[in-house]
Every structure is written in structure tokens, then in C-alpha cells.
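User: Can you recover a sequence for this backbone? Please restate the input before giving your answer.

Assistant: Of course. Working from this structure:
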């Protein structure tokens, strides 16, 4: 009998995921052949199912296939060849003004029966308190100071402050989407290369992003012309801890191919 997990997935799905994760490498060389029709679209559709805080969906992805724009991105990335060699480059960007997404999110969630009106009202207060601000406004500053002070006595939600604070929050959300994208690409036989070595201002300029977007990653995608070895990882006991820092979580085997 086929083993079915509690969430409806099969044991075979877990084994397939292991193969997909181990197949993902950071490709440095690509062939320029176009990605077969429909594959990239399916990968992007899967990517959109990535989780985000409060379901604000505060990230976007710009798929760049235009040779002229790819050339500009390569320049922004200090002349790294994979940017221009790959048939497509996906620029992941986070919106630092995500509070304005809430009403659209709430409307969808209520219409589809995911949220009640009362729950949406409750979340609206939280989102406006945490994210509704000008970057350097006095109200946001005092909220930030207040929560930091109260956190000495009881747990408090994080209140981002300034460009760096809101960009940092957005990068966490966008990183989840980028990882989903890379695993989905791997599952469809594509290679990727997550990149953070670039000048963000030049990337924004190349793809026409407004200043309130921040760019944590861009990912060339296609077929590699050079299969690289699986990069090493630390011993599991260095990475995984049991209950408290310093106590190794035992029984984990390093995965290799």
C-alpha cells in the first residue's frame, strides 16, 4: 500500500524532493538556448505559492530575457558572465511599502472565505501599527523605540525602522520565494544561480524599479554548460542544535551524491 502522509503527500514525494534538492547547484556557465515554452511559466506559478507574512505578498519578480537589459544587469553584477549567458534572469525585488497591499489581500481573503471580517479588522490594526509609516517619520520612530523598550519586559512584535529595517523584513519574505523558484526550476530540469553580488541601484535602473523596491537577489535560469560538484556542508551537529544552543541534534546524516 502506498504510504500517505498527514498532508496528503506521498512518501514518493519526499523522495522526489530529496532528489530535487540534491540536483540544485549554483550554475556558473549557461548555454543560451531558450527555455522550452511553458516551463518557466509553470516554475513562476509555483513560486507564487511561497508564504509571506500576513499574506501581504510584498515581493515581485522581473523576468529579463531582453539581451540589452541582460547586458546592463551583467554590468551591474561586476561583469559576471552567467547573467548574460543564461536565457533568462529573474530579478527578485521586495516592496518596502507593503502596508498598502493589505486591503487587496483582505478583500481576496474575505471573498474566498479564508478570513472573516473581524479577523481582517484585527490584522489591519497590526499591519498598520507595524508597517504603516514613513521611513524616517516621528510616529514610526516612537513605535520602534516603544516596542524595543517594552521587549525588555515582555515579547513584542518587531517594528521595522528606516530603509534598512523595511528592506530587511522584505528580504526575508522574498528569500522564501527565491528558494521556491530555484527548487521548482530544479524539478523541471533547469539550472539556477542565486546572486547577491551586484550594485542594487544599477539593477533597479536597468529594470525600471521604483526606489521603494529593494533587490536582495537575481537568479539566472536555464541549462548549464558545466555540471558542478555538490558543494560541501558543515557536519550536521555544527548546524543543528537540540533545545538550546550548543547541544547537537544527533542522528542526521549529511546528504551527498
Amino acid at each position: 500500500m502506498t504510504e500517505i502522509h498527514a498532508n496528503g503527500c506521498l512518501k514518493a514525494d519526499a523522495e522526489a524532493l530529496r532528489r530535487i534538492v540534491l540536483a540544485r547547484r549554483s550554475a556558473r556557465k549557461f548555454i543560451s538556448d531558450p527555455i522550452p515554452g511553458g516551463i518557466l511559466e509553470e516554475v513562476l506559478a509555483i513560486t507564487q505559492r511561497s508564504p509571506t507574512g500576513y499574506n501581504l505578498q510584498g515581493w515581485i519578480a522581473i523576468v529579463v530575457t531582453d539581451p540589452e537589459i541582460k547586458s546592463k544587469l551583467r554590468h551591474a553584477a561586476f561583469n559576471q558572465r552567467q547573467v548574460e549567458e543564461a536565457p533568462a534572469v529573474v530579478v527578485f525585488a521586495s516592496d518596502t511599502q507593503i502596508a498598502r497591499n493589505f486591503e487587496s489581500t483582505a478583500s481576496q481573503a474575505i471573498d474566498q472565505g479564508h478570513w472573516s471580517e473581524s479577523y481582517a479588522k484585527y490584522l489591519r490594526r497590526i499591519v498598520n501599527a507595524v508597517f504603516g509609516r514613513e521611513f524616517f517619520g516621528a510616529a514610526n520612530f516612537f513605535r520602534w523605540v516603544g516596542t524595543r523598550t517594552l521587549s525588555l519586559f515582555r515579547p513584542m512584535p518587531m517594528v521595522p525602522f528606516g530603509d534598512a529595517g523595511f528592506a530587511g523584513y522584505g528580504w526575508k519574505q522574498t528569500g522564501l520565494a527565491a528558494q521556491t523558484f530555484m527548487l521548482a526550476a530544479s524539478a523541471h530540469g533547469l539550472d539556477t544561480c542565486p546572486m547577491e553580488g551586484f550594485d542594487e541601484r544599477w539593477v533597479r535602473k536597468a529594470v525600471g524599479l521604483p526606489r521603494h523596491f529593494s533587490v536582495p537577489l537575481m537568479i539566472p535560469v536555464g541549462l548549464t554548460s558545466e555540471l558542478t560538484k555538490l558543494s560541501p556542508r558543515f557536519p550536521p551537529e555544527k548546524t543543528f542544535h537540540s533545545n538550546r544552543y550548543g547541544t547537537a541534534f544527533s542522528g542526521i546524516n549529511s546528504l551527498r551524491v
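That completes the design. The first helix runs from residue 11 to 23.
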